[in-house]
DNA sequence: CTGAAAGCGCTAACAC
DNA sequence: GTGTTAGCGCTTTCAG
């Protein structure tokens, strides 16, 4: 029946007083460190109980220099990729006794730089960053200099000697392209939201190190091996930013030499592309074949079921967190670069080119 | 070209020394409070720059008692509902200068209690909680007692005098049920993951205050008004926990008097239900009509497009954060209970009952 | 084992 | 305006 009024937490001092011991002893009993007699410990714990004592983690962190908190910086938490990876990070961190501070950058570099600084200032014990594409690494150097571990998610920064966890993309993309080629598709469109500042794609354009670069490399190899020229005119970057996905799709399926297959670089793009195709009355796979990166529950339920490249997203989160925790624990070994296996799931959205006629006559 | 070695951050003391001023003056200049001459300020700022000074937010928080951080407790960040709401919370908090600590409870009460305590111990300035269904409010009382504001998301706790933000569900559910009834459906199945401990649903079962209760209330009213008995045997709770969604769906569409329409209480359930229906060869809407709560990009792209109840998820997040920030700012007015409008989006997954025959003969 | 006292890095009185 | 002196709540020497 205390009066309501807020403020003033009970501190170790309060507990110590009630338990009739020194502040230091109370703190030891409460914090579970140092030497304390059973007698004292129980008295202190009892006092803490009646006083409803809860430690001030801020004060504790200040002394120990460790906050039992990790920071996570992602581009867009609403994107299923990140929310699932986040779940993996979360589960693993929690199991290790760490809390998670989440920062969303909206895929903006300035925000990312800010985010990293904020986390550092809050003294997180380490962080996981999914860097915006084409960012440099200067802001992450500050983290490295601070001595706190970082692990990169979904991206590798060659200039930065830190751990990274990505999904294997080159090989699986090669397979995907082979599949398309096998079905007779040589006019394959590729839509990505990778921001390259609005320039057109060319073979010698440096996209930096990121999943898109890997995918394109795999696809290119398949085309090269097949002796087919990669249709660079159908590779469209900057989707959603410089250009609307709808317009991009529209452009791919019309024109004199249209794409016979479309590859969506992620599920968000796929959804918009699918909507546009439906709006335009373009049928899958009769008029155009469709393949997307990322497996989601709805992909197999569409009509037709969508062929996808599935990457182990949750596991990427788990792996990133596991490595980070190991580093926080003191592991000073060489940076590790994990590439988790992805796989192609063939469903029915990819069909032989020209099957529109077949379909119509069937 | 400093040597690598970690540790030891530069502090105000370091900056003060270099700038040849007192620690207090340096702190004032750095923190942007109190009175400082331009002369001193620039000297301090310059020193801070060369020393790469970054404030220790922990220390700052300890003195001010404010951490500029809010905590968010959700059931499952992987669920699109939460990740989108989180985005709303995030955007709003950030605009107000607050960071966000995310805690995921996995819809587990013990974890939720823990989460709330952790946040309190970390001295967050306030928190947003989407309480697990059917939880009591004792753990949240501690927050209220601490004097820090909480706002409830997607759930209202009558016993707790705090703000809440939910989506209006009773009216829109009434409309949805009306729609179903108008199409001739009286055998309407309802699948929810609401955990009621495995008991069967009956009309007098107390489900507590939560969206499901509201939905059922709205549906019931529509049935009552139409003079049709609510098919309580087709209302299945505990989906995903006590029973697999697939089994539940299977049970609804088979048996002597099967459901002619199925309502999925959220998108996760809908996806599993849809998969099961497809597996079982049950066609929508020919064999069974389908309606789901929550609008997602893929819903309209399915074949047929799914009729949904859309709730303003992002806006709920925004509203919750806005109220919280106002409270943190000192607003002591009466608790506010916001119910944002939802709406029924009619597409093609709901058709007149018995349209299977019509469809077959067409 | 226990207690007194000295900080962690910062802000907040309080004097000058 | 500026500097000095206390703390915030906890951990950590350092003596006993």
Describe this structure in words.
- The structure is a homodimer of 362-residue chains.
- With 362 residues, chain A is of the alpha/beta class.
- In chain A, 42% of the residues lie in helices and 14% in strands.
- Chain A has helices spanning 12-19, 23-31, 38-51, 57-64, 80-95, 109-121, 138-146, 170-182, 211-226, 245-253, 267-279, 313-328, 355-361, and strands at 69-74, 99-104, 126-129, 150-153, 163-167, 188-191, 235-236, 261-264, 289-293, 307-310, 337-340, 343-345.
- Chain A has a 6-stranded parallel β-sheet with strand order 2-1-3-4-5-11, sandwiched between helices. Chain A has a 6-stranded mixed β-sheet with strand order 7-6-8-9-10-12, sandwiched between helices.
- Chains A and B meet through helix 4, helix 5, strand 2, helix 6 and helix 7 of A and helix 4, helix 5, strand 2, helix 6 and helix 7 of B.
Task: Characterize the quaternary organization of these chains.
Answer: homodimer
Rg of chain A, please? 27 Å
| Beta content of chain A | 5-15%
**For the report, how would you describe the main beta sheet of chain A?**
6 strands, parallel
- Summed up, the helix count of chain A is 13
Strands of chain A, count: 12
What share of the residues of chain A lie within helices?
40-55%
Query: Which chains make the largest contact?
Result: A-B, 55 and 55 residues
Task: Report low-confidence residues of chain A grouped into runs of 5 or more.
Answer: 1-6, 358-362
Q: Give the overall shape of chain A.
A: elongated
Structure class of chain A: alpha/beta
* Helix and strand run of chain A: HHHHEHEHEHEEHEHEHEHEEHEEH
> How confident is the prediction overall: mean pLDDT of chain A?
92
Provide the spatial order of strands within the biggest beta sheet of chain A: 2-1-3-4-5-11
Cα-to-Cα separation, first versus last residue of chain A = 81 Å
């Amino acid at each position: 029946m205390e009066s309501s009024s807020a403020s003033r937490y009970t501190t170790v001092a309060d507990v110590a007083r009630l338990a009739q011991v020194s502040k230091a002893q109370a703190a030891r009993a409460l914090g579970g460190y140092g030497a304390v007699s059973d007698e004292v410990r129980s008295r202190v714990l009892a006092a803490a109980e009646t006083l409803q004592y809860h430690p001030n983690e801020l004060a504790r962190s200040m002394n120990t220099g460790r906050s039992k908190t990790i920071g996570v910086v992602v581009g867009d938490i609403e994107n299923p990729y990140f929310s699932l990876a986040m779940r993996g990070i979360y589960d693993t961190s929690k199991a290790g006794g760490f809390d998670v501070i989440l920062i969303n950058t909206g895929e903006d570099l300035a925000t990312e730089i800010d985010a990293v600084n904020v986390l550092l200032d809050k003294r997180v014990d380490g962080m996981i960053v999914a860097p915006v594409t084409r960012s440099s690494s200067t802001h992450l150097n500050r983290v490295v200099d601070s001595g706190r571990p970082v692990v990169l998610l979904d991206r590798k920064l060659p200039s930065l000697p830190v751990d990274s966890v990505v999904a294997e993309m080159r090989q699986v993309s090669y397979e995907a392209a082979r599949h398309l080629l096998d079905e007779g598709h040589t006019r394959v469109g590729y839509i990505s939201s990778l921001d390259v500042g609005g320039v057109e794609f060319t073979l010698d354009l440096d996209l930096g190190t990121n999943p898109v670069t890997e995918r394109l490399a795999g696809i290119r190899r398949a085309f090269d091996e097949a002796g087919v020229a990669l249709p660079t005119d159908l590779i469209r970057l900057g989707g959603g930013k410089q250009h609307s996905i709808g317009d991009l799709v529209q452009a791919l399926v019309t024109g004199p030499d249209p794409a016979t297959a479309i590859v969506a670089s992620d599920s968000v793009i796929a959804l918009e592309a699918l909507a546009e195709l439906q709006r335009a009355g373009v049928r899958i796979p009769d008029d155009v074949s469709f393949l997307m990166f990322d497996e989601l529950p709805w992909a197999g339920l569409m009509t037709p079921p969508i062929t996808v490249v599935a990457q182990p997203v949750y596991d990427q989160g788990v792996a990133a967190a596991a490595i980070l925790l190991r580093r926080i624990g003191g592991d000073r070994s060489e940076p590790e670069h994990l590439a988790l296996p992805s796989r192609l799931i063939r469903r029915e959205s990819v069909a032989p080119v020209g099957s529109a006629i077949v379909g119509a006559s069937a």
